[in-house]
Amino acid sequence: MSLRINDTAPDFTADTTQGAIRFHEWIGDGYAVLFSHPKDFTPVCTTELGTMAGLEDEFAKRNAKIVGISVDPVESHERWKDDIRTVTGHAVNYPLIGDTDLKVAKLYDMLPAEAGDSCEGRTPADNATVRSVFVIGPDKKIKLILTYPMSTGRNFQEILRAIDSIQLTAKHQVATPADWKQGDDVIITAAVSNEDAVRRFGSYETILPYIRKTKQPAA
Ligand code: BEZ
Known about the structure:
oxidoreductase, peroxidase, 2 domains, Peroxiredoxin_C, antioxidant
């Protein structure tokens, strides 16, 4: 099954480095970032998991929990954490799912149904499609999906920026332009009439009839 934005994120139970979790229950009332990597003890993945460890506080500020996943066993994740700390200087304190039967990878459409049901003998290349990010909201709906090639490490600052936009636009009838960041002007959505725009946002600028900009509303 292919997943799309606004679909309900599939729920699952899984073993993690912090014990068994039921995903929706673990998410609770906040946001969650589920991010996968092709294989433990590989170079790009080592830098990615360390970068996420360094950003955990930034995600927490946004009420977003983070959880990593690969088809490697939990014991492998535990051994790998030392390397991640040595290389990046960051301790991994978020849970890592050991998806050894590929159940979650298949549920999230990272691997095809015919990928088998064991991590045994799988090479990093076999898991090439497993470098994905899913941002999930408190309503358990998928807000963002991203998949990168095996050879390209992800930019997790972009995930933080996207969460800022997702949370702002969930509250106000605005959208955020290209490269927007906190504090920049925002776009008033088409659903808001000009009269309503004045009432909601005070003042705004009409760049084109379909592009109306205003100051970022207060959270
Ligand atoms: C890496 O993270 O460096 C990597 C992952 C899968 C295949 C090859 C390299």
